Amino acid sequence: MELQQIKYFLALARELHFWNTAERMFITQSALSRQIKALENELGVLLFERNKRSVKLTEAGAFLRDQWTPLLDEINRVHLQARKIHEGAFGTVRIGYPGSIAYGFMPDLITSISKALPELKVDLVEPTDISFEQLLLNYQMDMAFRRDPAENPALQSEFLYSEPYALVVPQSHRLTEANFTGMHDLENDKFILSNLAQTTYYTAGLRQIFEDYRITPDVRIETDFGGMVLGLVSKGLGVTILPYSYSFSALPNVRFITLPYRTNLYVTWRRSDNSPVLKNILKLVTEVANHYTIERS
After folding, report:
1. Over the stretch 243-273, which tens digit does the pLDDT of each residue have?
2. Using 50, 70 and 90 to split pLDDT, how confident is the model at 171?
3. HTH lysR-type domain spans which residues (predicted)?
4. Which of 82, 104, 217, 237 is the most exposed place for a label (fewest CB within 10 A)?
5. How wide is the angle at C-alpha 107 spanned by C-alphas 88 and 282, nearest 5°?
6. For the segment 29-73, what is each residue's pLDDT rounded down to a tens digit?
């Protein structure tokens, strides 16, 4: 007994007309008759009472129609789901990201994913104490956005865009884009920064800025959460340096002054991952990133 035979049977059970059913199923009337006869022989059950004038279901045929109809609907749903998984339109993708892209790039990307792949579930992770690489290699994450390319050969990275670092000060601060001459203007200011002793790419960039200006920042508050840093700056508790993407937060009472230093954004994934979902997401990532090269001077 084949699935196609059951489909022929259910179609005939609805139409109760061989010629109309054959036309709907794109086969000849004689071929349909042979398929129904073969099914009856396989089951050992008479499914239809037929004569030259009419076709009607037997009691056994009506029973099988009622039992097989929901089963066939379920099979069709399963097949459709399997096709969506194969095409990368269904499933779950786990994405890691730094807080700096939470206000612009990530919302735009998630919007794009929601429109293109509405049945895909997205899990977002902002790691703090575990590295992106470790999470990717342990299959706890499928894709990660980061400020430096991956070093592990099992991972693959692609450059997306570049943006400047920015000095962030309270709105009432004396410095503006117009009168700012360099980091030496801030020798007596209190800073809110990540721990500069960390070995991350971001903190290495911060250290480079301070070393170039030969100043040691007076760090009064340390935190790795950019959103918290912005909130503290807006309260007048200090100044900071962040990627310019944080300006998209539109937080009141802060001013961004661009610096002559840039930071990059990369997307990283497992080199061996051939998932259709990943392929679809990477295509959307590239499309969104094409609008995100931030040129500020």
Report:
1. 999 999 888 999 999 999 999 999 999 998 8
2. very high
3. 1-58
4. 82
5. 35
6. 999 999 999 999 999 999 999 887 889 999 999 999 999 998 888
